[in-house]
């Protein structure tokens, strides 16, 4: 019988803007795509572009079982039951819904969720370490900083100038600055928020200040009313805006494009997966911020393996957060940075966590 590895769900949702991922990758029906799994949201969204093949890869067993569960739910549940099961809408029937899809799951996934039915009962999209961290901030920290009326106003204001004036005059006080920087500082985030491995190579001593500047940029962007990510952070769920893959029209396209042959969910680290792939076999790479947890030496080794596996003219996207990683000098001539497209994506990006976004095209 398969044994369950004792790993935790780090992210139950993806925290890179899906529309940026889709626009930057520009996937078509001839593409073979590699996508880092994480919470699965962006990988599921890529299916809407009908790639010839999609490999969803993650080294964390808990993430893989979360993806397997969400993927099965997407394939088998109707729209309202899916939102209910995942945790978008209220429900007391999630375990009952789970029993109806359980037989469609892999054995390892059934074993995992049999041990974690409390997570299903609460809604799996809220189950990640990072999502719990955001929930703690919303429930216990945010009320110390802002009254409910301020929160409602900034979320519901559609006028950008009015929103900016409100932020500067009502929201951005000394208490907001101090408490936010402490809560999102390295010490607390490492313990309660992000995976500890993401801090192994992080040398900044002022991550609280860095995240404050980025979060402030998000609040000043004028896009809050249509920003599902900020809505989730500040309200704890999706009410007005849904992630791309949970928009009903997009979801129907995703369902139509799913076959048993074109989607492969694989538990492996990225290098382990790539070394098993033939030369010139992948045309699009969604790599999230995978390099954040890797040394310079291993990142360089990984980029070389990506180059081997990539088709000519392949496109690669990834992010830097607190750790700088980029293409090593010895192969840099094979990676062409698409600055024009990067600038366009940065203007539209709803996510403010990251320092830098990269789009490279392979030239062999």
Task: Explain what the structure shows.
The protein is of the alpha/beta class. 49% of the residues lie in helices and 12% in strands. It has a domain at 129-235. It has helices spanning 18-25, 41-47, 61-76, 79-86, 94-101, 107-114, 117-122, 129-145, 148-156, 160-171, 174-183, 186-193, 207-219, 228-235, 248-257, 270-274, 296-309, 339-348, and strands at 32-36, 53-58, 263-267, 282-286, 310-320, 335-337, 356-362. Residues 1-5 have low confidence and may be disordered. α2 (41-47) packs across α15 and α4 (79-86) packs across α5. The protein is built from 18 helices and 7 strands. β1, α2 and β2 (53-58) form a beta-alpha-beta unit. The chain has a 7-stranded mixed beta sheet. The longest helix has 17 residues, at 129-145.
Instruction: Give the low-confidence spans.
Output: 1-5
Large-scale geometry: globular
Biggest sheet: strands, sense, closure?
Answer: 7 strands, mixed
Helix content: 40-55%
Compute the gyration radius: what is it?
Answer: 20 Å
How many beta-strand segments? 7
Distance between the termini: 46 Å
- With strands numbered from the N-terminus, the spatial order across the biggest sheet is 3-2-1-4-5-7-6
Count of helices? 18
Which H/E pattern describes the elements? HEHEHHHHHHHHHHHHHEHEHEEHE
Provide the β-strand percentage band.
5-15%
Structural class: alpha/beta
Global mean pLDDT: 91
């Amino acid at each position: 019988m398969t044994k369950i590895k004792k790993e935790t769900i780090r992210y139950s949702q993806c925290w890179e803007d899906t529309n940026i991922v889709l626009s930057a990758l520009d996937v078509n029906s001839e593409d073979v795509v590699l996508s880092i799994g994480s919470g699965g949201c962006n990988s599921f969204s890529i299916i809407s572009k009908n790639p010839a093949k999609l490999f969803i890869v993650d080294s964390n067993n808990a993430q893989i079982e979360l993806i397997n569960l969400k993927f099965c739910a997407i394939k088998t549940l109707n729209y309202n039951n899916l939102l209910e099961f995942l945790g978008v809408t209220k429900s007391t029937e999630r375990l009952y819904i789970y029993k109806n899809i359980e037989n469609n799951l892999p054995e390892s996934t059934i074993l995992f969720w049999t041990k974690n039915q409390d997570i299903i009962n609460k809604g799996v999209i809220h189950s990640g370490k990072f999502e719990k961290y955001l929930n703690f901030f919303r429930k216990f920290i945010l009320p110390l900083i802002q009254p409910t009326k301020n929160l409602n106003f900034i979320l519901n204001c559609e006028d950008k100038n009015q929103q900016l004036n409100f932020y500067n005059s009502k929201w951005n006080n000394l208490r907001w600055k101090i408490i936010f920087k402490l809560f999102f500082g390295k010490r607390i985030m490492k313990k309660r928020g992000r995976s500890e491995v993401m801090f192994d190579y992080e040398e900044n001593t002022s991550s609280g200040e860095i995240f404050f500047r980025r979060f402030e940029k998000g609040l000043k962007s004028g896009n809050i009313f249509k920003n599902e990510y900020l809505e989730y952070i500040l309200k704890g769920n999706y009410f007005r805006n849904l992630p791309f893959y949970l928009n009903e029209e997009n979801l129907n396209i995703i369902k139509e494009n799913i076959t048993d042959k074109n989607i492969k969910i694989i538990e492996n680290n990225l290098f382990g997966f790539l070394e098993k792939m033939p030369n010139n076999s992948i045309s699009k790479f969604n790599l999230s911020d995978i390099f954040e947890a890797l040394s310079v030496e291993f990142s360089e080794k990984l980029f070389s393996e990506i180059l081997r596996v990539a088709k000519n003219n392949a496109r690669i996207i990834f992010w830097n957060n607190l750790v700088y990683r980029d293409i090593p000098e010895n192969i840099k001539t094979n990676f062409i940075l698409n600055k024009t497209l990067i600038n366009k994506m940065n203007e539209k990006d709803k996510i403010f966590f990251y320092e830098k976004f990269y789009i490279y095209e392979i030239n062999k």
